[in-house]
Write a structure and sequence with these properties.
The protein is an alpha/beta fold. It is 34% helix and 28% strand. It contains 6 helices and 8 strands. The mean pLDDT is 88.
């Protein structure tokens, strides 16, 4: 049985920072469930906005949400009307007062979860997965990454038997704690079933 560790969780406090910045004693489980609901809602509502990361802070009875997006203009909308709609939607879900901040993610081509989503989207558009993987590796290394590893698993190319294909180039030191490794996972929903996409 494989015993694999999430590269981001492995480096918490070393090269990675926490995405939820709050402390709770007794009500921890309730706050954690609330966080998960908010994250799911943001993923659902802001699918076109290219959300790379969501940071949650809790000060008193107010929840601070910082959304890092590759396309902040889509999230903000004309005159900020999309932000107001999103804030009211999130307040309805959590039942708490929410302070929403949207920041631009400077290098979207170096974010693992954004790369994984773009690969999944192109696989859903019936583009051959090997070509997608090769083009993504080329673009990411051009953007300045030292290395990249992509793994696609499932019924690749509409085959009867599921398998996994891996493509990596450059350095990917998973055991070096000081190495800044980003990890992203998503699923492509195709006619033949789901295809998992992992990016390091």
């Amino acid at each position: 049985m494989g015993q694999k560790v999430d590269p981001c969780g492995f480096r918490l406090g070393i090269t990675q920072d926490w995405q939820a910045k709050w402390y709770a004693g007794k009500g921890y489980a309730r706050l954690l469930q609330s966080d998960l609901k908010l994250r799911r809602a943001i993923e659902r509502e802001c699918s076109r906005g290219g959300v790379a990361r969501v940071e949650i802070t809790r000060l008193g009875d107010e929840v601070g949400l910082t959304i890092y997006s590759a396309r902040p203009g889509i999230l903000i909308g004309r005159g900020g009307q999309n932000v107001e709609v999103l804030r009211s939607e999130l307040e309805k879900i959590s039942g708490e007062k929410i302070r929403l901040t949207i920041r631009e993610f400077e290098h979207p081509e170096l974010s693992a979860c954004l790369i994984a989503r773009s690969i999944a989207g192109r696989i859903e558009d019936m583009i051959p997965f090997r070509r997608v993987m090769r083009q993504t590796v080329f673009r990411t290394l051009q953007a300045g990454a030292k290395g990249i590893k992509i793994k696609c698993s499932g019924r690749l190319g509409g085959q009867e038997i599921a398998r996994s294909e891996t493509l990596h180039q450059g350095r990917m030191p998973l055991h070096t704690l000081c190495a800044d490794v980003d990890y992203g996972f998503t699923e492509a929903h195709t006619v033949m079933g789901r295809i998992g996409v992992k990016v390091w």
